[in-house]
Structures are given as C-alpha cells and as structure tokens.
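Thread: quick sanity check before group meeting

JM: Hey all, I'm pulling together slides for Thursday and realized we never actually wrote out the predicted structure for the chain we discussed last week. Dropping the sequence here so it's in one place. If anyone has concerns about the input, flag it before I start.
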Amino acid sequence: MRHALIATLAVLTAGSALAEYPEKPITIVVPFAAGGPTDKVARDLAEALRKPLGATLIIENVGGAGGTLGATKVAKAAPDGYTVLLHHIGMATSPGLYRNLQYKTLDDFEYLGLINEVPMTLIGRPTLPANSYAELAKWLDANKGKVNLANAGLGSASHLCGLLFQSTLKNDMTTVPYKGTAPAMNDLLGGQVDIMCDQTTNTTGQIEAGKVKAYAVTTTKRLTAPALAKLPTLDESGLKGFNVSIWHGLYAPKGTPKAVVDKVNAALKVALQDPDFHKRQEALGAVIVTDARVNTADHKKFVEAEINKWGPIIKAAGQYAD
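JM (edit): ok, ran it. Output follows.
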C-alpha cells in the first residue's frame, strides 16, 4: 500500500510539474562571450522557443576556460528546468582537453536535443601562393615545419579542426593560438599566419569579399551557399573520411524531472521547424538537425560517440589544459 501511494504521488507530482512549468523566465547559459557564433545560435533559438515553450528566455554569457565554466555552472544548478546550457562540440572535446574538469559530461546533464551543425572551411592568407587545394597540399608538403596554423584558442572549433587536419595529413605545423577568432582572422588577413580552419559563420564574409583564399569545406558534401558552392570537400580532395562540423545542443542539470525534459524537447522540435529560425541559421551557414539526434537519447549517444572520436586525437596531440 505504501509503495503504491508513493508511486501515485510521483505521477501526480510529475503531472503537476508539467502543467505548471514554466512559471518564470528560463535562463540559457552560453559558455562563451556575447556576439560569437554560439551566442548567435542561442539568441535565435531563444526567440524560436518563446512561443512553443510559453516562456521568456534570458541569455546569460558565462565565458572562460573553453566553455567549461558555463557548463560547470549548469551542471551544479538546481535541476528544475529554469537553467539550461547551450553548448557546441566542446561538450564532447572538453573531457579530453581538460585534466581537472568539474563535471562529467555523460553523467551530470540531461540531454535535451541537438540543434544544428555548422560546417567549416579551410582558408589561407591572401598572399599564399597556392590557389587550389591541390596546390595547397603541395605547398604544405614542401614547407613542413614552417607552416603557421592559426586557431582561436584551446578547445575552439578552429583548434579542433586544425588538430584533425594535421593528424590526417601527418604533417605537424606550428600552431598559433589566439584569444578568439577576430585576432586570429586579423593576423591571417595581414599575412602573419598561413592557414586556418574555422566555421562558416566566421569565414563566409571574408571569402565573399575575396580577402582570404578559400580551399575546401570540411563536410563530406559540398555546401550550397553561393560563396561556398564551388569549394571542394576535403574528402573529395583526397582526405578520405574527413568530416568536421561544429554542432550545438541543449542540456539541463542531471535530475531535471522527465516531464520538464520532455516538454523542453517537444518545444525544441517545434522551434527547429520555425521558418524565421531557419532563415537566421542559413545566414550563418548552419544546417538545422532533422534526424533522430533531436531526441534526448539519441543526442546523448551522439555526444558519447564524439567523445570517443576526439579523445584519441587530442591525446595524440598532447595539448591539454588544467
């Protein structure tokens, strides 16, 4: 009798939580500075979620330590659905990059669904002699030990793409980390560094303006955006299987009631079909996720697979942070 009463109360409580949630604004923690690609995704998503979720969504930027400070804040937040995390591929690479991570990626969060994928482009300084990827490959081979590869800092999208590029080519380059994409791009434009691999959200404008040399995209299929449609993929250029996209997902603290998780997931699926959200994301070069990874269980399986993919690459590079 006692167990039956407890089970009944649990069902009633869950139903009550679903009926009442949300009663106040929801905070989306973005673990990076305002104005960056992840911040833009969060602000677009917040607008698309507002109606299906029936709540005001507030963006809180908690930058630092490659996104781990913001992720830690959400992992330790009250599991009531009012504090969620919007994070990119760093959710899967941080376990390999940081020795003293303050949370367990697969254990300390509820997975709410994948949002989008952002392709990347391989670009070079405007004075680089190579005008195609084939010419670039020859130039890189002829200049082993002399090539400067820029990135936006440890754990950044450009850092990860650079690691995979070097690993695939078996060509160690001089990695030049910056505090963000803007200074890295400025030095690329000025010719202080040679190449960089970064998100289309950061490179498309420079490619359109002809300020950098564009060599390839990192997806297995060519992109359709006008400025990028003529670029080959690295896969078709000879780096078979090369595929890097910077994805974004939504997370809640572990222990958030299932009724709340399900309601946010349902609202997310509606938001991902919003025409305005699609237009804004397309303008950033992002592709909305429409497959099973929008489901909570599949989202978690995907992140686990990404952890297994990037862990060995990071370990081989020996690039860690405390």
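AS: nice. The chain is about 45% helix and 20% strand. The beta strands are 26-30, 57-61, 83-87, 109-124, 148-151, 174-177, 195-199, 213-217, 245-253, 287-288.
JM: adding both to the slides.
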